[in-house]
Give the backbone structure.
Amino acid sequence: MRVGILYSRIRKDEKLLLNELRERGHEVEKIDVRKERFGLESTTANVDDLDIVVDRCLSTSRSLYATQFLDSYGVPVVNAPETGDICADKAKNSLALAEADIPTPATEVSFTKESAMESIESFGYPCVLKPVVGSWGRLMAKIDSRNAAEAILEHKETLGHYEHKVFYIQEFVDKPGRDIRALAVDGDPIAAMTRSSDHWLTNAAKGGETKSFELDDRARELVERASEAVGGGLLGVDLMEVGGEGSGEYTVHEVNHTVEFKALDAASEVDVPAKVVDWLEAKVAAADDEATEATA
Amino acid sequence: MTSDTDTLLAEDPITGEEIELPADVEVGEIIDSPVTGTELEVISLDPVVLEEAPELEEDWGE
């Protein structure tokens, strides 16, 4: 198959994927989105005859626009722009999970310092304030007191960008020093790991220690439903255990659409890039079958 | 520039020192400078040209 890779940086994750694709003899078209132009009818990027394009843009804004344009040209792209649109925004993410009746932390959005303070006080301390767009645990605040809340809200108000005036406030989930990242393709979990840290932020990007994790039936069900809630694709579903380690009860706090998998590949026995390419091959084969049936 | 089959040689854009890169690096790839630890981007392979990788931006991530 001919596979396009949308990117602006080839990280270890993209390298693993590129190597796997090439080892299997697939033709790869690397599309550096920084160098291309996207018009209403066509693009300077060489997307002709691509069987599928995989969005690996590190920048959320580039990811959202580039996938939208490719989709408008009829180029098959994963993840779909609709999925990216939900996953890139924590508020939309929370709404999608809640609408699908998936347990997710209680969340409020407010637009002024005053109403944000009311949200914070209604949750009580500690609670969590996150940017609606952002990743790797950046600019996330665990708020322990009213004094801290006032200072953080004031700082956010002066940060400038309008997104910092959308206050996304969430209950603090007292997780057992770890959370769970599951990588799934159209709801089917490929592998999972825990991310542990003494810090309240356990992201692997923040130095959280990773360890392979076996999902139980309940976690698998939630991963599948969370994937469906955002439109499916190659996704990183983040869960926290509620009621202590091994309780078997979870809350899903986030679904990520341009998911990194190098840490999971290293932590787990599963060959993650191989599983991702298996999925891409199956998707392309299914699309070919559909096209054949349509012309028969 | 090449040294042997396993590595490529390139100039570190920050220090000007010659550094070794894995032979399978590709355009767009981010590597850590063995001299300063700075993230460098591979701009071209023939000749091998490196530039300091762009700074992290607010919307980068998963």
